[in-house]
Amino acid sequence: MKFGVVVFPGSNCDRDMQYALEHDLHKEVIMLWHKDKDISMFSTNDCIVLPGGFSYGDYLRCGAIARFSPMMQSVIEFANKGGKVLGVCNGFQILCESGLLPGVLLQNQHRQFICKNIFIKSNESSPLKIPIAHGEGRFYADKKTLDTLEKNNQIIFRYCDEAGNINEQSNPNGTLRNIAGISNTFGNVFGMMPHPERATSTTLNNTDGKKIFELLNLN
What we know:
single chain; two-stranded antiparallel ribbon; 26% strand; Rossmann fold; 219 residues
């Protein structure tokens, strides 16, 4: 599997993602500039990554301007053909703004930027320690959408405590139903607020981020 990492003005985790994929996961990575359109070098077996940061300075809404970049038009077409797309933090926000994922990311409940290690889990994993760093990571959608996400198993990660308990105390930002990440209906587009690329190195004493890529079949 080959990876493309999109670089927007204001991206600040693009090189972190590149390094994690190349050096820790041993993947081929091609950096993609936001003003370009050509992604013909990728097949639907490959993955395009929208990294974290503050695309276009988040001057309108997080991800709202990046959604209209030339590269995103190609990414949307790629996803609609079945290609895999992963959005992390600001990338998750861009996916929601572009309509590739439902819902929206709102300001954290306590209106403060949060930067710390938290725990998340999927239906198939034990708790994984992954860093978060966001000011607008509170996932919101109407009840019908939330119920559909539940029914279709589209909630891929929830915030939990170290023992795996999903409760209010383990929810860092007030997100509905402790949602940390979701997928689209077809299971080829993934968005998550925590940063797996910051947890793939033994130097940092944390490689739980590698398990994220395994759980999403991005390996």
